[in-house]
Amino acid sequence: MKKVIGIDLGGTSIYGGLVDEKGEILKRASRDTGAQEGRKVVLGRIMEVVDELMEGETVEGIGLGSPGFIDVKQGKVLFLGGNIREWTGVNIREELADRIGGLPIYIENDANVAAICEEWLGAVKGLESFIMLTLGTGVGGAIYSKESGMWYGKNYQGAELGHAVLYPNGRLCGCGQKGCVEQYVSGNAVEKNYLEITGQRMKGKDIFARSETDKNCKATVEKFAQDLGLYLVNIKNIFDPEGVVIGGGVINSKEYWWDKMLKYYKENCNNPEGMEILPAKFLNDAGMIGAAKVVFDKM
Ligand SMILES: [Zn+2]
């Protein structure tokens, strides 16, 4: 069976997997991203992961999911490369070409690779059309239909669902706009909600865990669930997809907010039954498996 390397580049860690045609991860390697140390260090760490996975193996190609607006034709990060210093503007394919000795390499947006994984083997397998939201440090998005594949947009800025505006003149976002979705329904946003209510800081997962006993945590999570539920109404009305799949780190706490979110969605949508809302099946491995699938699809 053919094997490829799938890499999930995040702001904290780089996870790599040697993946076969069935989507099984046969071997794993990881490094700290070194996000604050800049482009050269991060590229070096990616190569360490690649070298470790390639040792003694025949590999057909490499796929990599990166934060940012990605020009998939060039393999270049156009803008907003997450929290990785000097990541905007880097042509990952060119930078790594010499070091990988002519192996094909494909770069994709990180939310897109998660969506590709869920479509291949996960929660939205077989659906004609779906939207993916990844709720992590920020909010990533992907728009997919069987008929036309991923939606990229003219400037590779399509499907940036985290930067739709939820609150005009709201919180300033890293993208330069105000009131973006990711300022209200990401992991970081939950912490900001709590800070606004109490003047104190608490980790997101602790806020969720205490939301049934502590009134400030409860109010924080209620607000998060409400904002996400309302945003799903917008998604339903803009895209009318067969399904929405929600992934990212915040999904680990879904027992505290999933039903609340559905309630707000159903109360506010004119046709709530018309769209399935599903939690992602692959969490930490989605990036690696989806990045690998990108390579298989090109072969
Ligand atoms: Zn934004």
Number of strands: 12
Question: What is the H/E string?
Answer: EEEHEEEHEHEEEHHHHEHEH
Number of helices: 9
Radius of gyration: 19 Å
Overall geometric form: globular
Oligomer: single chain
Strand order of the largest sheet: 3-2-1-4-7
Strand content: 15-25%
Largest sheet: 5 strands, mixed
Nearest-integer average pLDDT: 95
Helix content: 25-40%
N- to C-terminal distance: 13 Å
User: Which stretches are low in confidence, meaning pLDDT under 50 for 5 or more residues running?
Assistant: none
**Which ligands appear in the coordinates?**
zinc ion
Q: Based on helices, strands and strand pairing, what is the structural class? A: alpha/beta
What key phrases describe this protein's structure?
single chain; globular; alpha/beta; 299 residues; 9 helices; five-stranded mixed β-sheet; binds zinc ion; 12 strands
Question: Could you explain how this protein is built, in words?
Answer:
The structure is a single chain. The protein has about 300 residues and is an alpha/beta fold. The chain is about 35% helix and about 20% strand. It has nine helices and twelve strands. A five-stranded mixed sheet has the order 3-2-1-4-7. Strand 5 (about 70) and strand 6 (about 75-80) form a beta hairpin. Helix 3 (about 110-120) packs across helix 9 (about 285-299), helix 5 packs across helix 7 (about 215-240) and helix 7 (about 215-240) packs across helix 8. The radius of gyration is 19 Å and the shape is globular. The mean pLDDT is about 95. The chain binds zinc ion. Zinc ion (ZN) binds near residues 173, 175, 177, 180 and 182.
